[in-house]
Amino acid sequence: MDPLVAAQRLPRIADAAMRNALLGALGAGRRPALSALVGAALVRFERAVQAKAPDGVRPALLFAQRDRILRGLRALTESRLASRLFAVRPRDLIAIGASAKPFDAIVRGRDGRAHAIVFRAIPKDGRKLELFRRIRSAAVTHKTAAIESVVVGDLEGGRSRRLQVTGEATSRAA
What is the DSSP string of 57-79? Predict the structure, then answer.
């Protein structure tokens, strides 16, 4: 694979691997050890890279993404979001993965309302506003459940942002 194309595609592949490892652990209903979570993400990443680039990728690009996966998952598992997310009871897990599209998961909070969870690498520039706008509009137009808020977990820094969905979602549920 061309190094420029790989440098553009590998971060998205790494994000998908981290997201799928987190959702797999969430679906299992237990808080995983960091080593197990990183191992699952790295296996998913390696498989995806082999499928997309059978002729290989520069090792430096692979190692950079592997380090990013480790740093991102470590920061995320040490965050308050992970503590709260893995404390969700299985019956409060409304949807996960493909059934929660366009979100990664939908959970019932302590207040009894539905909250969507999205794991993405939040850009540090003006593109984050567009990302938040797209996520908020998806929550407003979501058909399955009335979404009260969307929690965006940053796959790079472990931070989380809570996006309050305006009154459109709650008025739709009434």
Answer: --HHHHHHHHHHHHHHHHHHHTS
